[in-house]
Amino acid sequence: MTVFLQSDESPLSGGGNYFENDEIIKRPYTLGLLDFSHELCYAGQSPVPAYAVLNNLVKGGTAANNGPVARVLESGMLKFTGAAPDVSDYVTLPESEFSLPATCKRALVSVALTLPATGYGTPAATRYPMFFGRMNNTAAANINFAIWGIVSTDGVLTSVQGAALGSVAVSATAQLATLTDGGTHIVSVYADGETTPGVLTTRIYVDNTLVATAKNSAWDGVVPQPSNRPRIGSYPATIHGPWNGMKVGRPLIMDLTGSSLIAADIISQQVALTAEYLV
Hints:
Helix content is 7%, strand content 32%. It is mainly beta. The strands form three sheets. Strands 1, 4, 5, 7, 12, 13, 14 and 16 form an eight-stranded antiparallel β-sheet that branches. Strands 2-3-6-15 form a four-stranded antiparallel β-sheet, with no helix packed on it. A four-stranded antiparallel β-sheet has the order 8-9-10-11, with no helix packed on it.
């Protein structure tokens, strides 16, 4: 992966050019980005040791940490190799950067996924493996942001869903065949409560394709701040992590409030960079 030169000068101060660690970082709107293929994020080899440091690529960001399970690093993605859903298989993310603040009105979250079509066993109950997010459960009032899967007791991956800013879940089920075709795909959730005050419109995309939209025409502007902290994977006792070889890469979170940035352009860039880097 290319390493970009950095200037000590703030990009907000005017003056010369300023190069970030990744082209998708837009100051001050990109809060957090991890790319495990980037040596500034993680310079080691596979497996990633338990509790290894994973650096936020946003300059000045706080480090994330792998959890208690050593993790296979494959094609720049973290691979969850457990044979069954687990509540102790995770990466901890710093709340200061991987959370949407109470003032957020427009947000984009995105993650690269590789999802097996079969092999999920027979879970004791329907499981909701969290790929990237901060939530207590899948109820709207308990979601700061999240992208998760749904696996039935028959061991079938039935959906991938997402939400942000306390929105209802939006479903990418219509693109499930694409998501489970063996390739790496980008799932993005864009929530906009800024363009029309009092209305929260939430969209989910697979790669560059808009899959579903939900609208809350009575949004109160409250951004949930769940007691659970942000994670890739499980939150002990409440949220299950991925398993069965599911892979997660390039988790990205942006607060676009007050910006002129266009979500579709950022998603397109995320798709292109994933194809370039996660190989």
